[in-house]
Amino acid sequence: MADLPFDLADVRLAAAAWSRIVESPDPAAGALVAELGPGAALDWLCTVADGRHDAGDPRWRQAVERWAPRLHRLDVRRELDVLDRLGGTLVVPGDERWPGGLDDLGAERPFALWIRGDPAVLRRRGVAVVGARAATSYGQHVAAELAGGIAEAGLSVVSGGAYGIDASAHRGALAVDGTTTAFLAGGIDRLYPAGNAALLESVAKAGAVASEVPPGSVPTRNRFLARNRLIAAISASTVVVEAAWRSGALSTAGHAAALSRPVGAVPGPVTSMASAGCHRLMREQSAVCVTDAQEALELAGGAGEHLPDGRAAPLGLLDGLDQVASRVLDALPARGSAPVANVARAAGLSVAEVRSALGRLDLDGRVGRDGSRWRRRRGQS
């Protein structure tokens, strides 16, 4: 196999190449790139695929067999030329414009984002509004009203650009001149679904259209499911407006819950199959009932200054904390209390660091002393 025709030391080219090579999410590829960096990881892959180096562990050999076919005639500069013609932007981890929420995905973090529109929009605090493609008029109305209220409060509305609830959410944000982001399952040169092409063009002008796969990539079922993790990770919270019992929107809610992002659901008529998934989320997964934009803003946390009546929403658990204080508060049990030594072990910090952080958190009203033990104050769960 010939060497790749571009500079592997160029971090942006190498990261873009990994977004072409790997069918995400692929934790093995994510771990390799995180350990070696995109350029060195790509060089290692080429040497193993060429037989110049042995992968060693059978699991790595299997991974190479999975990735190697896409090395054939790989030249990511072609996709970057398409991106340039679209007036788009490539953003990779480490860039100042990289949305930090995606880092919570760990080894399943995307290797790059291909963006049409303003990359800065992806760093704004946002709320995901998602739901069924086969939405009812009730669901479409509620989605538009929620999105409009969220956008008017200064937050971004995040969705998937699909028919039904997604489209209504984007339209609701655009109607109040707000910002919105659509994550696509395919390349940003193929605005999909075609029936929403004009809407997605408007989204790109007012906000951003983004994808983790390069231009030319076709949307597949796996990619639709994979992009749901990006919608969840980039958003402060997720609200499901309408969803059938096995709707794909429940996948987004599941990713949000796994990332400790709040999940809300809009109730519908008990006789409506279109709302069965929302009722299931509230019944089985403790999703918060959301009936208007203000409740959606409260769910996002830390957005009190945006609420229309000036009433403060509760801070997110770790909002406004430095890294040490964040780890200490996160290490305290959600219920009950713990001694300093236990907190230090759970947080991976020294006892002195934990004592200092607890003192600051106590002054902020986030923790309290329980004899020789410490606990979170009410509301910090």
TrEMBL record:
Domain DprA winged helix positions: 319-369
Domain Smf/DprA SLOG: 90-298
Pfam entry (one): DNA_processg_A
SUPFAM superfamilies linked to this entry: MCP/YpsA-like (SSF102405)
Superkingdom, taxonomy of origin: Bacteria
InterPro entries to which the protein is assigned, alphabetical: DprA, DprA_WH, DrpA_SLOG, WH-like_DNA-bd_sf
UniProt feature coiled coil, ranges: none
NCBIfam families in the record: dprA
Family membership: Belongs to the DprA/Smf family.
Protein's recorded name: DNA-processing protein DprA
Record lineage: Bacteria, Bacillati, Actinomycetota, Actinomycetes, Micrococcales
